[in-house]
Amino acid sequence: MNIDHIGIAVRSLDSGIEHWKKVFGYEQMTEIVTNTRQKVNVVFLEKEGSLPVKLIEPTDSTSPVYIFAQRGGGLHHLCFKCPDLDKEIDRVKDLGLRVLAAPQPGEAFDNENIAFIFAKQGMNIELIDTDKRAKRIK
After folding, report:
1. Is 85 part of a structural domain of the chain?
2. Residue 135 in domain
3. Number of domains the chain contains
4. Is the pTM here over 0.70, yes or no?
5. Residue 52 forms part of a structural domain
6. C-alpha dist (Å) from residue 73 to 16, 17, 35, 42, 91
7. What is the pLDDT of residues 1-28, one digit of tens each?
8. Domain annotation covers residue 31
9. Which of 24, 34, 89, 107 is most exposed, with the fewest beta carbons within 10 Å of its own?
10. What is the extent of the structural domain holding 40?
């Protein structure tokens, strides 16, 4: 597995995009996509020679990231790309990791399946097995 992107929770995508452009030199890679299952809006940013960043904004107070974002947000997850999502889920379960969200279509990935697991050190891990990004600008 290799790291595909870093997920950062923010209160506002508009201010988050502006911050990452101004401070770190990232550019918007996709249009904003709404993930209805997780109740978040997301956007991918990119910078040559660096990992992509996915900014995550809660759509309402029932979103799982709402409280975290309201407290200032920050690192939400690391996403790893693997060759086969189902096999990787089985492998990490055998290692004792807990599945937070079983494979399901992810709107930000053109409805290719994504999954979330909880790893040691309190880290949320997103797993994907696709290169697709919905609403790509570039």
Report:
1. yes
2. no
3. 1
4. yes
5. yes
6. 10, 14, 18, 14, 30
7. 999 999 999 999 999 999 999 999 999 9
8. yes
9. 24
10. 2-128
